[in-house]
Structure formats: structure tokens, C-alpha cells
Design a protein that fits this description.
CATH topology: FAD/NAD(P)-binding domain
Number of domains: 1
Number of strands: 9
Order of helices and strands: HEEEHEEEHEEE
Oligomer: single chain
Shape: globular
Length: about 140
């Protein structure tokens, strides 16, 4: 995330591709960090917000790179975006879709053995292409 911010602050468009449904990685799963026992969420939240709000950063979560062509400075990247079954442009995070979804699956953070109803499921994928010139 810091690298994305550094490049974006230099004036370049950044596409941050994350295979999981959200950015933050393992740090988002931790309660506290060693050796200081600092709150992990407290440490990572400001960076997550900064990345999400940066005008030069586009987060492509729940996505994977499926090909790169070209050369440094002039390239294209093929990104497969997994279906979410929720319109991200109008999602407010209220959880109504989760409460009403009939599909059950194991939660993303699999520390829990319980299954839970979620709107996110495996299925159809969309393709999205970006090019290395920031267009």
C-alpha cells in the first residue's frame, strides 16, 4: 500500500490489484502486533483510508492478474475481476444484502468454523483491462 501511495503521490495512476475481497492482508486479521502489542486495526486503518481515498489509486480487489504484455512504460495488464453479486457503485456496507442472500459459504477470514450467509460467492468472472500508461 505504501508503494502505491508513493507512486500515486508522484502523479502516476496506480491500479492496486488484490486477489482477496479487501486490501490489508494478514495485518487486517491480527488483534495485536509483536513486540509492542499495538492494535493492528489502529495501525493499518489510516493507511487503508489514505489508499482508498487517493484520486490516483484505483483498487481492484477480488481480482487477479491474468497476463502482462508490452515493455516497461508501455504495457497492458489483463485483470480478471471475480463477481461480487453486489453493485459496488451503490453499496454502502449496510449488510442488507448479507442478511438476504441465500448462499452460504465459509467466511473470508477462516478462523471461524461456522458457515455464514454472505452475498459474495464463487462464480462468473468479469474481465477488465488496464494499460501501463495510466489511461
Amino acid at each position: 500500500m505504501q508503494a502505491a501511495l508513493d507512486v500515486a503521490n508522484s502523479g502516476f495512476k496506480v491500479y492496486l490489484v488484490e486477489k482477496n475481497p479487501s486490501i490489508g492482508g494478514n495485518m487486517a486479521q491480527l488483534d495485536k502486533t509483536f513486540p509492542t502489542n499495538d492494535c493492528s486495526t489502529c495501525m493499518i486503518s489510516p493507511k487503508l483510508i489514505e489508499v482508498a481515498k487517493h484520486p490516483n489509486i484505483e483498487i481492484l480487489s477480488h481480482s487477479e492478474i491474468h497476463g502482462i504484455t508490452g515493455e516497461p512504460g508501455n504495457f497492458k495488464v489483463k485483470v480478471k475481476k471475480k463477481a461480487r453479486y453486489v453493485d459496488e457503485s451503490i453499496c454502502t456496507g449496510c449488510g442488507t444484502c448479507v442478511d438476504n442472500c441465500p448462499v452460504q459459504y465459509r467466511p473470508y477470514f477462516e478462523q471461524s468454523a461456522d458457515e455464514k450467509i454472505e452475498a459474495q460467492r464463487k462464480g462468473k468472472e468479469e474481465s477488465q483491462s488496464t494499460n501501463g500508461t495510466g489511461e
